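Fresh eyes needed here. I'd like your take on this protein's tokenised backbone:
***
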Amino acid sequence: MIRNIYDMARAGALRATKDGVTGNPILRASMTLSANPYSARSFYKHELFNGTFGRMVFSYKPRTSRDGRIPRQGKYDDEFYRKLDEYLLRLDNCKGRYIIRPLNKLVDKLAADMASLADLVDDDILWDFSKRALHSAWKAGCILWMLNNQIWTKAMGELVEWLVYHDIWSKMQIFSDLLNGKDADLVSEAQRRGPKNMLDSLPDTFNEAQLKALRVQLGKSEEGANAQLRQWVFRKFITYSNQTGLYTKTEEYLGASLVNSEK
């Protein structure tokens, strides 16, 4: 069902119907599945690489403090349901093919950002996840555009960007050790962490041996250091000095890192 909802237009993806396996169903669904981290890990630990996992959008909420208060759901007044009916009608009336250029431009930029991030942490799995995180956030952006009378706003773009990073962050908070092939039964919750930006862990000026040592510390091979350095130079994260044999972080990278840390 998840694959049909996600890839409805793809050949070969439309298989499950009441009449057999060759149908072309129209599926409309709004689903929220909830679980604690232990149950989620137990359920998904054998399903992390089959495609369905990447299609699911995750939202991780850390355990809150023990404040003694019980959360309660709110009550919705008639105005809320009137507004909801209005939005549902807009969705139902939005038929045809549309091109949302500001959204497409944003997703292209985010795709480049995801490629840079994957290079910083040298993580193919993160890169693979980001593709579907981008797709899911793009779909959310399409719905926002429809609900807002086909008008794009800066706030929508900010939300789409947040959705991409929040989906990836949530998955890494719960599953990072499993995604890296570690035994779930041998890793404590404190040991689970997402990919590490290796360039941030190095001094502003460093040599290849320091990167190799860091890679070994993080469980990666020394052999990948040279290729990683070439990617960092290509993306203008660092420069190389033939005279000293040292790499130096660029002002552009240091400025971007400062902005991200302040966020």
